Amino acid sequence: MGPGEAIAIPIVIGILFIGLPWLILHYVTQWKRSGGISREDEQLLDELHDTARRLDERLCTIERIMTLENPNWRAVCNDPTPPAIRQERTR
């Protein structure tokens, strides 16, 4: 056994039995500590939920208004052919 091996063996053993478990336990502790969402993230999530709800209400209002003005608006919007082509075909 040479002098390089005599130094390398304790270093490898130290890394395997001290360094690696310390690294794993450190990140497990960090993971457990931040297990839930923070207050800031929770507030942001609540704000996003309220914004989505308001946008959904606005969309429903717009759909009601459009239905009152033109009850057939959904069929017109879903038709893939433009009006000019439709007029040419009917001539």
UniProtKB/TrEMBL annotation:
Assigned keywords, A-Z: Membrane, Transmembrane, Transmembrane helix
A Pfam family of this chain: PspB
Keyword Transport: no
Gene Ontology BP terms: phage shock; regulation of DNA-templated transcription
Annotated TM spans: 6-29
Source organism superkingdom: Bacteria
Zinc found in the keyword field: no
Protein name in the entry: Phage shock protein B
